[in-house]
Amino acid sequence: MVKLRVKVVTWEDVVRWTKELAFVILESGYKPDVIVAIARGGLTPARLLADYMDVIDILSLKVEHWVETGSHQEEAVIKYAAQGIDLSNAKVLIVDDICDTGKSLMVAKDYVEKYWKARQVKLATMQYIEPVAQIRPDYFVDLVRDWTWYMYPWNYVEDMVNLVKKILKEHAPLSLQEIIIKFQEWYNITPPIPLSETLRVMEYRGLVKKVDGKYELS
To answer: Which domains, and CATH codes, for the chain?
Structure first.
């Protein structure tokens, strides 16, 4: 039984989506002076968009919302807030990888308008998960009608670790082969990095221990 709907995203997907997104924005007539990337997920898409759209200035805001793969804290908050930035003469594009609840986008937009005094702000994401989002981005290219966890290339290790942790919380101790079977049952995807490598990383981080050939959480 699948417990979490997961889509593995490739680098090729990211390049294709950001290229499509760039043309959607350009064809709308909006030409931002500054791109603000929501860290961490928006950093790579923002850099690619800047290249396609000939935007020189990129800033970032660290927004904390998702605390673990598939789960989030109730409110999104700005971390390491930078003040004293003046964008009063700038048209701004705020970029994130995905609009899920939309709270990260809303918090970032409010901050950029209130503290950085941006003249105009628009929002862009690759994915827009329509059923759960509380805000609709101005620009997106992939409309998602069923909630799905998108596993982006810059998040493979973190996501794989968290997905394995979910399994071990319920079923430890398990051998590598048993974890492989459970992983397929729970998520129905081909792991983007081998589960053996994931468990090795988890051992280095002190998250799991191996006893008599089986893994359990430390």
So the answer is: 6-151 (3.40.50.2020), 154-217 (1.10.10)
